[in-house]
Amino acid sequence: MCFTVSFEGEAIKAVKEHLKVNKDLKMNGEFNEIYYLVSGFSHPKLPVIKYDSVDVSEWGLIPNFATNIERANELANMTLNARSDTIHEKPSFRNYIKTNRCVLPLDGFYEWQHIDKRKQPYYIYPSDETVFYIGCIYNIWVNRQTGEMRDTFSIITTDANPMMEKIHNTKKRMPLILPKNALQTWVDPTTNISDINNLMQPYTSDLMSAYTITQNAGNARLNRNTPEIKARVV
User: Fold this and answer.
1) Per residue in 176-188, pLDDT tens?
2) CATH number of 4-230
3) If pLDDT is split at 50, 70 and 90, which confidence band does 154 have?
4) N or C: which end of the chain has fewer CB within 10 A?
5) Which of 203, 192, 200, 187 lies closest to 49 in space, CA to CA?
6) In whole angstroms, what is the distance from residue 214 CA to residue 137 CA?
7) Domain spans, the chain
8) pTM
9) What's the rounded mean pLDDT across residues 206-220?
């Protein structure tokens, strides 16, 4: 799965580059954060690339059938990830994969390897030290009581590649990582769904690197949003 990520220098640079290259796009919402490590369960707001804009969106997709704030918040905790193999079936996701696709740039993400009764955290990042472009779906949920609009998204996951099978050795899943030249195809709402399905494949292990980090990465009681959290541990 993918519940913990890093959004900092390279990801911020990628968003700015996308806006610079696509001059007709604008960014909706304010974003001035640096996340060395952030959990999806805190529902951070992160910039996602859509077809006609870049929007600051809340992690945890809220489907339209949520009729009140309590149900919306409950669902948001259940929709941080959307499995590629069931995304066309699940009521929370099946309508949004058709046209509401977006991309989240990330510096990297975190995963835990199970070794007997111990869990060893890893930081996973691009081998070329640029960014991962993560395939996502989104929905703008409207609170029927207040009219408030919440832009929300889910990260899609695939089967693990050989590298991630060793790290995420229980669930054996990984985020959907797209090649940069596929971004426009992914976010275009008119793209044929068969082409979208073909993109939902495990990323190549050769383009990924990883190393072990401090056990403090798993301690939610500590301030984990520091550069030191990503320090390599032998």
Assistant:
1) 999 999 999 999 9
2) 3.90.1680.10
3) very high
4) C
5) 187
6) 31
7) 4-230
8) 0.97
9) 94
